[in-house]
Amino acid sequence: MAKRRNDILRKKIYIVIFRSDTALGKLFDVVLLWLIVLSILSVVLESVESFRNQHLLAIRIAEWFFTACFTMEYALRIYSVHRARRYIFSFYGLIDLLAFLPAYVSLFFAGTQYLVVVRALRLLRVFRILKLTRFLSESNILRTALKASMYKITVFLSSVLTLVTIIGTLMYVIEGGESGFTSIPVSIYWAIVTITTVGYGDISPQSPAGQLLASVLMIIGYGIIAVPTGIVSVEMAKATEGSKRQCKMCQSPIYDPNSRFCSNCGVALKLK
Amino acid sequence: MAKRRNDILRKKIYIVIFRSDTALGKLFDVVLLWLIVLSILSVVLESVESFRNQHLLAIRIAEWFFTACFTMEYALRIYSVHRARRYIFSFYGLIDLLAFLPAYVSLFFAGTQYLVVVRALRLLRVFRILKLTRFLSESNILRTALKASMYKITVFLSSVLTLVTIIGTLMYVIEGGESGFTSIPVSIYWAIVTITTVGYGDISPQSPAGQLLASVLMIIGYGIIAVPTGIVSVEMAKATEGSKRQCKMCQSPIYDPNSRFCSNCGVALKLK
Amino acid sequence: MAKRRNDILRKKIYIVIFRSDTALGKLFDVVLLWLIVLSILSVVLESVESFRNQHLLAIRIAEWFFTACFTMEYALRIYSVHRARRYIFSFYGLIDLLAFLPAYVSLFFAGTQYLVVVRALRLLRVFRILKLTRFLSESNILRTALKASMYKITVFLSSVLTLVTIIGTLMYVIEGGESGFTSIPVSIYWAIVTITTVGYGDISPQSPAGQLLASVLMIIGYGIIAVPTGIVSVEMAKATEGSKRQCKMCQSPIYDPNSRFCSNCGVALKLK
Amino acid sequence: MAKRRNDILRKKIYIVIFRSDTALGKLFDVVLLWLIVLSILSVVLESVESFRNQHLLAIRIAEWFFTACFTMEYALRIYSVHRARRYIFSFYGLIDLLAFLPAYVSLFFAGTQYLVVVRALRLLRVFRILKLTRFLSESNILRTALKASMYKITVFLSSVLTLVTIIGTLMYVIEGGESGFTSIPVSIYWAIVTITTVGYGDISPQSPAGQLLASVLMIIGYGIIAVPTGIVSVEMAKATEGSKRQCKMCQSPIYDPNSRFCSNCGVALKLK
Asked: Which of C155, C169, C230 lies closest to B233 in CB terms?
């Protein structure tokens, strides 16, 4: 009998924590989201020296309050889920664990308390909460487009890395240590800073030959920054295309999501 | 009788001030536009020290002349409009108020006179003036494209903010205060400067580990700068497409250039 | 009789100088192009102090040799062209004049000799020389795309300028002169440097509020840098599409603008 | 008889070294790839002073081990290939030679040992190794798109270079040597740094006129950075389109590369 009641309780907790299609489940998710945002804010503010000196106690209390919340939530998740092991080793399970573990570790090892910022990854959960809204389908188009572009992006990135290695080494030979190009890794770092058009200017060529090579690298970078954009644009256009409806009579594509008749054969369409 | 004449006067003022389809209405709009541009110019020039020292009186006179103009215009707008309250709390009404209010406030609180620069927002009125020209339809395509991309952009921006928070914190842990990463908010600021490829260089990583992480962030930024471009390109292509034909029966847009029937009401279409 | 011979000479010169469809005309154009490139190179090298000190005489001689060439060429052009006045006030005529005038002016006013660099504009003539090759048609597609985008770009640029004025003023109020924001024009310059993602770092915000506002500006810039790209992409796709021909028999697209027979059904095509 | 055995041996070596369709051939390629990566790593690490001081002997041994491997590989390639001269002067043959030659040259001329980094170019071989996977076809789309855009990119780049030369000279005249614009080549370098939105900030305008011209250049750069992106996007869309299959019965395009039946008419398709 007690076991039965226990089972019902577990099921109830499961529905509140894991699902978001009941009023209580939604409330839980929204509260959780705010706790995550606030806990990240407390970590961020703790690192500001003037703020830390004034409100050290408040920060400490808030910090441990959030850690307690996440620990309790994790315990409830393990308690209520059917296959605990599977949850623990899932992507979300590991993130949930990392959300409070660093806080306990920091008791023994100083300086690790900032690692709790991985809690930010929990914010990705927001996409799960909004499952029924338009956000996820948009996110899906993005994901499909990115996945389909993966191969092209790999080819592109390896070409860029080869280019950056060669030009970085050339700059090391041309400029030498006086202008800040103290070693090849630093020169490669400079080449990446340049080709991505970030351009800090902490290291910059001083000799005419170095400035010429840098100019060539920039013009090349100017040209090839177009490549990933072209890749993603095309894939995104295809993904958008792929999510379109089709007329069941004449197979012509339905462009307007609100169409009620096929634009080619005039047959009535079912609304999605 | 006086009331009647009053009403006619109000109507006349209304047509001149609010509309731009009469010669006088157009003249009013063009003069207003020039007043806005000149008043912004006077505020901008006032801030240049050498100019202020030489022409202080001229600036002051111009400043109060513009403020008087805008105050009078505001009074006339309230006087002539049918539903004054609705106008006052509308978007354009608030901007019109903000165009002269800071000037009066600056009599009591020094340093607030620069806030009159919000007058620049009044320049947006130029799009209303050019209502009948090609500009607005172009602006409409832009707006439609941006609106349709809003959901995708929200997903994109929240992912970027999560990424920037995590990498900013990591850099704070890796680099510490000596290289300028004095707190997590500053490190997040650095991460935004880097991922958007702005790259001021006021803060830049000095340690090998920091430079490696920065390189990874730049390469990631290089890849994902393509995403908003892809989003807007696709939406803009759709919006351009969408502005093509319209059904003559139900006014719904015809997306497919080869449609032979309206997708909304099923009426037969003439081919372009 | 002498007049007759004169006329024939003028015609011959005209064909050599203005046309490029004879062997001599082509040779003239290529030699001219090399003279332009070399004369620009001599101006550029003159500005390098170490080079000027060593080769001053050689530079001076080269400089006056090029000026003499361009002067003579200009005289021949005026002599041989039918309607001299029309040529003189045409776009190319003015550029041809500006190619040697500054050299003579610099005899009286020191420091103006660098203005001969406007000769670089003469390089645009290269597109005219290559008239019969593929380059010009490509350049036409670019021009069509840019022209069609002009309206959208105007709306876009005026929005960007309004944004930059407002944020520049806000930064001037927030940061003040200590961080380099010495006046509103300088702050607007900073905002342009930031929103275009150039980011020199000669001026950068120091206060938390300033860094927050800068972050917002960067994220906005990140989003709206996509807009001109989207505009040009769409217009370019349309221009490419628009320049395609179709076979009238089998409807298959004709990709090569010079094909005289349909590559699918072999029917003879009319040249566009 | 000995010649016969010799021929068989040469053929076997050829298959292992030049092909990658046997198990041994694949193993050879993978080992070679790792040797290339490790040898580049050793060169890169040698340039780091602290590392060089500690592990000088190990680096030297590794360096010569890699050089011996590549020399032996080169000898085997010449020995086994049919037409040795053709291989030696081919693109890959020259890269293979450059992979070990600088190491020997550095025995006589100090400072040239870093040139062995051209070994990185050998990594391009990876695309040949993966010939049968999806990578190469992706790389082909990229190459087709880039090749088709070549003409447009040439027109674009020559316009950019003309612009940069003229604005660089103007800045030299306006700003002069005090702000770092010491010569026209340096000013052109600055203009390239600005128009590509890299923006080091090692040279930046100080006078109001210079800052105004720089702002104009940045806004122009902002607009025309869209052009290469538009070009590549359109070409990439066309290349993607061109690599699509078509049903032989109804001519409808086959979007999914794995489909075995036409989605329109249901006819069986041959797999590519």
From this structure: C230
**Nearest CA to CA, how far is D176 from chain C (Å)?**
11
How many pairs of residues across A and C have Cβ atoms under 8 Å apart? Answer: 9
Cβ atoms within 10 A of the Cβ of C253, count? Answer: 12
CATH topology of domain C2-131: Four Helix Bundle (Hemerythrin (Met), subunit A) (1.20.120)
pLDDT digits 0-9 by tens, B188-200: 999 999 998 888 9
Which of residues 249 through 268 in chain C touch D, CB cutoff 8 A? none
What pLDDT score does D194 carry?
92
Nearest CA in chain D to C37: D162
Distances in Å between the Cα of D62 and the Cα atoms of B218, D49, D108, D117, D202 are 32, 17, 19, 14, 39
Question: pTM to 2 decimals?
Answer: 0.80
Rg (CA), chain A: 27
Is residue D121 less than 8 Å (CB to CB) from chain A?
Answer: yes
ipTM for the complex shown: 0.77
DSSP A171-212: HHHHH-GGGT--SHHHHHHHHHHHHTT----SS---SHHHHH
Q: Return the closest-CA partner of residue C123 out of D161, D154, D196, D188.
A: D161
The token pair that represents D250 in the structure block: 């109804």
pLDDT tens digits, one per residue of D78-113? 998 888 888 888 877 888 888 888 888 888 876 666
Q: Name residue, tokens 């997590």.
A: B184
Query: Which chain C residue shows the shortest CA-CA distance from A208?
Result: C48
Hey, which residues 36-75 in chain D have their CB within 8 Å of chain B? none
Q: How many CB atoms neighbour CB B6 within 10 A?
A: 10
CA-closest candidate to residue A215, choices D186, B71, B174, C19? D186
Query: CB distance D208–C185 less than 8 Å?
Result: yes
**Torsional sign, CA D263, D264, D266, D269:** negative
**Inter-chain residue contact C200 with D201, CB threshold 8 Å:** yes
Q: Where are the domains of chain A?
A: 2-131, 134-242
Residue C76 to chain D, least CA–CA distance (Å): 26
State which fold the D134-242 domain adopts.
Helix Hairpins (1.10.287)
**C236 contacts D234? CB cut-off 8 A:** yes
C101: its two tokens: 């005038």
Chains touching chain A, criterion 3+ CB pairs below 8 Å: B, C, D
Residue bearing tokens 């069986």: D268
State how far the Cα of C62 lies from the Cα of C51, in Å rounded to an integer.
14
Helices and strands: H and E segment counts in chain D: 12, 2
Beta-carbon separation of C47 and D188 below 8 A: no
Handedness of CA C236, C242, C245, C246 (dihedral sign): positive
Tell me the nearest-neighbour CA distance from B75 into chain C, angstroms: 25
